[in-house]
């Protein structure tokens, strides 16, 4: 068995948040003796990742995603627990560590705003001290794959969001990192750019074997890319495994969608629940162990006129929402 | 009268926003006290070593300095008189302003009134409370002097706001406007008496200093306060302030019309 | 190793300068504005000398020497240290993470990320005041004094730079004290423009022992002006005190790296 590229065990991180009451007197008082509240960002988080994996890391805002990523990237020190990335403790020697990883923040740029793209790349080469010939090869390859050729000499501030994100991806890979962190890489992109970015990430992972951690709110990203998903909420890992395993963990439920001939028809069945109704389209949830799909369909078609029907899994958003729901209950 | 209502509503909304920043006000006040002290020690250095008779006493110069610190937020010394409008111009969102059924000049002018008065009220009261009992700041010698000061302050406010609105408008010419906006503060600072009191400038310059617009911003009201100008001089001061305000309003409106034409040609 | 950093610094600065020169007209206006701001303040001082003749026995050229030293040193620090001055915004927006993710020391990145060219206007003005003063005072002939002057300028720039670094380090804890820092920095420039005996003892102590600006300005200037007898300290001390500037900067950088380590373990 190969050594894991990331090993995290019982990681815990709390933040101190300065508490402030309203009013000028309290403002002065808190200057002299600030009072703090503890907020647990990560509590007993453990997981491992093997080289070459492409893992989705999802959770609601404030769940601890970015805290984990910051610790793995070496820019935050945990309170407790073991963390080994690329066979070293990331935050002990930040500079050596960050040289071997790549990070893309979807909402924040690593390029020089007023400089042409290509000059940002050249500057990054110097910062990461990449050998000239290796750099030229890698750069040209990235430019070709991400189709950056037509705007290399345009200042970054004039790029469209989709163009900029492709440049960010290239910029984070110029030093050939073994491990890539992607934080919301498709946020705000149009459909075409999204597909291009996804395809690039998939090829990068398959062909070059780069290990990728992808945090996102876009479940289509997860479904298109990730064989494995980590779900975090309130600082706890809720689920770790394949998408299929995640589904079965949460629910056996299947969804039956009907297009009615007459939109006013009422649709009910004792073994299924109506969960959505939009115009002439009705969606019912049922448990295949209590009632097989065929039986349910036969029973319904006997009673109501149906133009079309479709049986499927609940969307991944629904699964995740339920997972969070169970947690908060 | 009802025509003024929307401007008043905008003014009060802006005023309430600005008054929230209490901590900024406390820190700002500490800064102003510290600066005032440095300036006063420097003035003392000049007064204590000289054999000549200056045109105003040290006590008066000290009061003048504290008045300058107390009303600093009201005075035209920022290169960015209206950050919101500046952003609007930078992002092109100013086009939406054009779509409102409101006179843009009056709108921007009323924003200036809010931006100049709210922080001033917050900052000047504490400075009076500290500088009068402890730091050598004087009070008006007579009730009449005090009243004349307050009235002339209203004139100064008009003068400042109509001038600052010109600066805001000049930002429509993004590049050169920004440059001009940065040149202006140091000049107005000098001409209004905030670097050194205007009466301490050489006698040859006094006539020019009296007639130029910025004496009405700080110097004349301050001198009315401690009686260096008698209360009877109020009429002349007001006339000077209002005449220059009128000039500034006219220039502002003219510039705005040209600026907007520029905007519509460029397409925002 | 050193060589690598130097090359990188040049690359970073070239990028920053290119960005500034993209708006050429605005750049020249701002440089001129920087020049004017200082020149106008100096005009104010000149007016005071015109009115009072002397300042506690100090002549205009003597004060101009202090004035030139203080402003040149500050403008140098401000030109190179802008990255630290702006650090508060960087922490608040989370952009500091970006620096941490690069394989370079953060202090180096902040130093390199911005070289504010328009400060040349202020430096030029400071140097003009200096050379005028030196001409008037006939200092130019004494090589030892020139060396002392250059060292004092460098040391003074280090103190101001150290203040920017400390201000940035304080942002690791809270960004609400920013205005206090700028009071010390800008108040320091203002105070250093005049001879220290002018000030009450608490302020003299502040600018001698806590923020050692006097050691880079008033003390060496006294030697340059053959006034070291007034000091009450051995002249040799005045000769060596520019070193204090370098020490101050070194301490500031230690505080910075301590603050950064603290920040990494507490997060935000």
Shape of chain A: globular
- What integer value in Å does the Rg of chain A equal? 24 Å
Strand order of the largest sheet of chain A: 5-6-7-3-8-9
The biggest sheet of chain B, with number of strands, parallel, antiparallel or mixed sense and barrel status, is:
none
Give me some keywords for this one.
heterotrimer; B: 268 residues; mainly alpha; 0% strand; C: 268 residues; 15 helices; 77% helix
SSE topology sketch:
The complex is a heterotrimer of chains A (329), B (268) and C (268).
Chain A: E1 6-19, H1 24-32, E2 35-49, E3 54-58, H2 65-73, E4 80-85, H3 94-98, E5 101-105, H4 117-128, H5 132-146, H6 161-173, E6 179-183, H7 191-208, E7 211-215, H8 219-225, E8 228-233, E9 236-241, H9 243-250, E10 254-260, E11 272-278, E12 281-286, H10 293-303, E13 306-312, H11 316-328
Parallel strand pairs in A: 3-7, 3-8, 5-6, 6-7
Antiparallel strand pairs in A: 1-2, 1-4, 8-9, 10-12, 10-13, 11-12
Helix pairs in contact in A: 5-6, 9-11
Chain B: H1 5-19, H2 22-49, H3 58-70, H4 83-91, H5 94-99, H6 104-134, H7 143-170, H8 174-192, H9 206-211, H10 219-225, H11 234-266
Chain C: H1 2-21, H2 24-52, H3 60-80, H4 82-85, H5 87-93, H6 96-100, H7 106-113, H8 120-137, H9 143-170, H10 178-192, H11 201-210, H12 213-216, H13 218-224, H14 235-240, H15 242-266
Helix pairs in contact in C: 1-7, 2-3, 2-8, 3-8, 3-9, 9-10, 9-13, 9-15
Describe this structure as you would to a colleague.
The complex is a heterotrimer of chains A (329), B (268) and C (268). Chain A is α/β, with parallel strands linked by helices and 329 residues long. Chain A has 11 helices and 13 strands. Chain A has a 6-stranded mixed β-sheet, sandwiched between helices. In chain A, strands 11-12-10-13 form a 4-stranded antiparallel β-sheet, with helices on one face. In chain A, helix 5 runs antiparallel to helix 6 and helix 9 crosses helix 11. The longest helix of chain A has 18 residues. The two termini of chain A are 39 Å apart. The mean pLDDT of chain A is 87. With 268 residues, chain B is mostly helical. In chain B, helix 7 runs antiparallel to helix 8 and helix 7 packs parallel to helix 11. Chain B is globular, with a radius of gyration of 20 Å. Chain B starts with a helix and ends with a helix. With 268 residues, chain C is an all-alpha fold. Chain C contains 15 helices and no strands. In chain C, helix 9 runs antiparallel to helix 10. Chain C is globular, with a radius of gyration of 19 Å. Chain C starts with a helix and ends with a helix. Chains in contact: A-B, A-C, B-C.
